[in-house]
């Protein structure tokens, strides 16, 4: 069980580092002055899920779920 805990801890650390990097790579949610004139309804605004920003958001969600699951698993007491 000790080997499994070490492996899960290493995966946990890698997920933590990846989450920090992905959050720093993402753009802010505030659109600035461009939202006043309706510039948010451009091609990139409508197809955000297919862009690099949309991919970063999806990967961040999956890593956050993995982070939470590993947190719960690592806090169980292994016999």
Q: How is the secondary structure organized here?
A:
Elements: H1 2-25, H2 43-46, H3 52-75
Helix pairs in contact: 1-3
What can you see in these coordinates?
It is built from 3 helices and no strands. It is mainly alpha-helical. The radius of gyration is 18 Å and the shape is elongated.
Secondary structure tally, helices: 3
* Broad shape: elongated
Element order: H for helix, E for strand: HHH
- For this entry, what is the oligomeric state of its chains? single chain
Strand element count: 0
Detail the poorly predicted runs.
none
Task: Report the biggest beta sheet as strand number plus sense, adding barrel if it closes.
Answer: none
The radius of gyration computed from the alpha-carbon positions, rounded to a whole number of angstroms, is 18 Å
Overall pLDDT, averaged? Answer: 81
Task: Characterize this entry briefly.
This protein is mostly helical and 79 residues long.
Task: Pick out its properties.
single chain, 79 residues, mainly alpha, 66% helix
